[in-house]
Structures are given as C-alpha cells and as structure tokens.
Amino acid sequence: MGNLHIEGYAVYPKENNIISQSVLTKTIIFRKGKDENIEELRFLAKNVGRQDLTEEYGKQLERDFDCSGFQIDIPLEEIYQLNTEKSLYKLYIEFSSVVDGIEMVRESSAIKFFPTISKYHSDPLIVKVKNKKKKIELKRTKKVRNFILKIDDYSTKKEIIKKVKKPWRNFRRSGKLKRIYKKCFKLIGKFPADKKLIMFESFAGKQFSCNPRAIYEYINANYPNYKLYWSIDKKYEKNFVNKDIKYIKRFSIKWLFYMARARYWVINSRLPLWIPKPKHTIYLQTWHGTPLKRLAADMDEVHMPGTTTAKYKRNFHRESAKWDYLVSPNAYSSEIFSRAFAFDKEMIESGYPRNDILYTDNNLEAIQDLKKRYEIPLDKKVILYAPTWRDDQFYGKGRYKFDLELNLKQLQEEVGDRYIVILRMHYLIAENFDLGPYEGFAYDFSNHEDIRELYLVSDILITDYSSVFFDYANLKRPMIFYVYDFESYRDKLRGFYFDFEKKAPGPLVKTTSEVIETIIDFEKSNFKLSDGFNEFYNKFCYLESGNSSEKVVKRILEKE
Question: Which of 14, 178, 199, 463 has its CA 20 to 30 Å from the CA of residue 159?
Fold first, then answer.
C-alpha cells in the first residue's frame, strides 16, 4: 500500500537549550476534534542530522542544530484502518526527553506553512483499502495556513462533479453570473405580470416567519385564487419542508422567472441591490421591528463589517426607493421610518401582522398545546431570553459573535426548581451554545423560526435592546432588560430614539444576580407590571388587536 513520507526540521525552544537536540525524541501527531472528542494518530520520528543549519545559523543564534532534523515513513494502512469516514487532521510535533530522571514533554502549536510560500499543490494519493478506494491529501488551510492531512472516500463520479463545479463556482463568484442574472431579470420583467402571483420572503429566505408569514396565512385562508410562493435560501430548506407551502430556491432559474413576473413581493428585510424591481411589481416591505436603535440615515456611525457609514446609508436608500408600501406598527415608527429610510410613498399604519396571534391564541388551551408540541415542561414557568446582536462583534459579513453573559449555572441554582429558560438568539448570531450541563433547565430554540410561539409559552421575557419587547408588550407580561453593556451600546454602537432608561417597560439590570433578584420581586408582587407599562402599551401597541394582517391585505389587494 505504501508509506506517507514526511521530513523537515524542528527546533526545541531556546530557553530549553540546555537539552541536547540529540537526546530529544520527536513524535508527529495527527489530531482532530476538541476537548473530549479528540482523536489522535501518533508516530515516532527518526532524528536526522542538520549540520547545514548549524553552519548557517548556529554562530549567529548561539544554537546547536545538530539532530534537529527528522523524517518519518508512516504506513498508509495504519492511517486507513483507524478511519471509516471523512477526516481532517492538523499536524503537531511533540518533543520529549529525560533529564535527571525527569521526563520533559513539550508540544508545538499546529504546524503552518512557511509564510513566504504563497502557493501549494499536492496531488492526492488514491489507495484501495478492503475493496474501497480512499484518498489522502496533504493540504493547506486557506486563512490560517495550517498543514492538514485530509482523508476521504474516493469515487470517480464525485471527482468529476468536483472538477465541473470548481470553474462554475469561480464563475459565480466573479460577478459575471450576477450581471447575467440582472440582465435576464430586466428582460423577463418586461413581460406582462402574473397578476395573481405573490412572492414572499422572510429574513433573506431563511425563515417561514414574521410579518410575511402572517400576511401569507391570511391571504391563503381568504383569497384562494392567488398563487403564493416563498423565496428561500437553499441552505435553510429544512425550515420549509412538510409545511404544505410552495417555495422556490433563491437565485434558481425558476426563481428568476417567478420573481420577475410576480405582481406582488411581500418581504421583511432588504433584498440584494442588484435585483431590479419590474414596473409591474408592487413591493410591500413589512420590515421586522419597532425601532429602539437608530436606523439607516439616523445612524451616526456604522460598525458593521464590509461597509462604511456613507456606503451603508447610500445602499439602504437605493433599496428603500424600490418599496411601494411600508408596514408600520404605530405612529411613532411611521415618523422614524419616513426619515431614516427616506421613504416618501404610502405607509400602512396597521400594527404588525405577526402580532395577531398574540391576541387570537393567548389562551390556556393554545399555550398548553404549544408546550406539548415542543416538549416544554408543563409544571414550570418559562423564561424567554432573546437578546440582539452587536454591530462590532462579528466573524464576517452577516455572521455576528455573541458572548452569553447570562450565568445559566447561577440562574439554575437559584430558580431552577420552578423555572426553565429558553434561549432565542437573533438570526444573525452564529454561535452554537453547549447547554449539556443545563439539561432540563436551559433549551436552545434559536433555530425555532416562529418567535411568536415562544412569546406565548413564556411567563417572563429577558432581553436587551432587541425590538422583541415591543411585540411582547402585547401580552402584558413582565420583562427584564439585561443590559450589561448599556453605556457602550447607547453611546458608541447605535444610540436610542427615546430615553430607554426611563421609558423601558421593565427594570434595567447589569448582572445575573440582579436578574434573579428581579424574578423574585416579580413573584412576590404576583407578577405586577412596572408603573410605566400602561403608558408604553398605549404608545406602541394601541393599533394591535388581532386584525393587522387583514388591514394590510385589504389595503394592498383590494386597492391594486
């Protein structure tokens, strides 16, 4: 079957130069996984003399490089016998020696390619193991330049598909495909509109949720002669299957024809700027929250990745210029939307359609049914924790970091006998939290698309600056604002439209201990709402009573 041959040199740290290189044992480690799931392959290397290094660098660095070299031949059979599935291993070197009867062990960090090596190519080795072909490759990761060993099953069909996909992927990323799509979109958009076709999209095609869902459900129940389709991100198709809804994958050929010929678009976030709106299309922008944080033109600085303040505002206004109607939950929002979005067309001030369910289904029977469906304990109260994202904490464009500052261990110890906690992170947050230590107490519902259902099953909301509290107020239940970074968020990142400290419909706290104290205070007062709650409700929730979807649909369909 053959061997994998690796050779090079590795120098023990200078501070330990008292150890002769000749007595060091070098072990090559192939490692994958983290913590308890680590899997390692370890192979003892042979020391090789490198007098050339001593001659070139020894005097200058005051080092002895003799025996710093190594080489190893690893039987491929040993690697494959330990692997039954695709594996990626990083490489490490372990130094060990015995000095005065004491074993000393030191391990390198993951081996990287030398910085000056800009390109690297290695032909994969194909071998047959137990009548099954395997492929082994020595590769370099793109960003960090780690040296990795990749082991995978091999099939001729898969390799052909990969070779075909690569130029297609490069073509797509070059921007040429986008330009072709745009031209086709404009061309198809000149055809007559399908006057009964409505396209829906929620959060860039990731969810069947929010205002578009509520409007869809109302039209589906009351206007059976319309053709209703959802525009979806193919990576989130699982959120749309088995729901008896028709959907089309974003940017597919079919999507291109349907979007360009649709009479109506119902969307709750911005579309990519390259998508032109045909003259025959009515674009209903529902948006997705009552503004607390400053929006678009009202933002002094933009800290999001991949843009500048001027570019962000310019692109936002290029998008909002395409909107024909904009849904508003109240007069307060209408005034802000008009200015921040530079929107001068028709505002439908109706309340948010997504909140209709908070009136129609706010009863014991419906709530118990939801808890049973999602296996939420019936004998404990429910705390919903739904924070927002931070503009300046990100992995990349559209992928934000979030540090869970709420101490779940402390919360469980203090109130876990009578409460459970549901985590619902913002859809832009990329974190996956390990809730294993809190099994039976903390539940991650971040991928649960319909937060309205989580509102209904919860008894207390904990949030920060997320607009969820405007919606939750419709239920007239207690809220806690966990704002551990209040000054930074207020003064640096966004700024607020009103005095949040004085007008928030619940107490502001900065530590988990204060969260717990507030929960206990709520219990003692029989969950009495804060003194300013009614004033807040009357300003922000006065239009909502369970029929906002009807108001919006009648305004659009019956007029147009």
Answer: 178
Beta-bridge partners for 462: 385, 480
Q: How far apart are CA 207 and CA 201, in angstroms?
A: 8
Residue in 206, 203, 201, 199 with CA at minimum distance from that of residue 259? 199
How many angstroms from the chain centroid is the CA of residue 110?
27
Task: Determine the Cα–Cα distance for residues 231 and 397; give it in Å rounded to an integer.
Answer: 21
Q: What is the mean pLDDT of residues 451-457?
A: 95
DSSP state of 193: P
DSSP letter string over 380-400? SEEEEE-----TT-EEETTEE
239 CB neighbour count, 10 Å cutoff: 21
Strand stretches in 79-121, DSSP E:
87-99, 102-107
Tokens 């003064």 sit at which residue?
491
Helix, strand, or coil (residue 197): strand
What is the pTM for the complete model shown? 0.70
pLDDT bin (cut points 50, 70, 90) of residue 496 is confident
Residue 24 CB neighbour total at 10 angstroms = 20
Q: How far apart are CA 125 and CA 90, in angstroms?
A: 18
Band of pLDDT at residue 17, cut at 50, 70 and 90: very low
Q: 296-315 as b/e, with b when 16 or more CB fall inside 10 Å? A: bebbeebbbeeeeeeebbee
Report how far residue 208's alpha carbon sits from residue 457's, in angstroms, rounded to the nearest whole number: 19
pLDDT at 395: 41
Residue 73: per-residue pLDDT = 86
User: Bridge-partner residues for 442, per DSSP?
Assistant: 421
What is the reported pLDDT for 398?
Answer: 45
User: Any idea which residue has 């039209």 for tokens?
Assistant: 219
The residues, ordered by sequence, that sit 6+ positions from 28 with a Cβ below 8 Å of its Cβ are 6, 42, 43, 44, 45, 70, 72, 74, 91, 92, 93
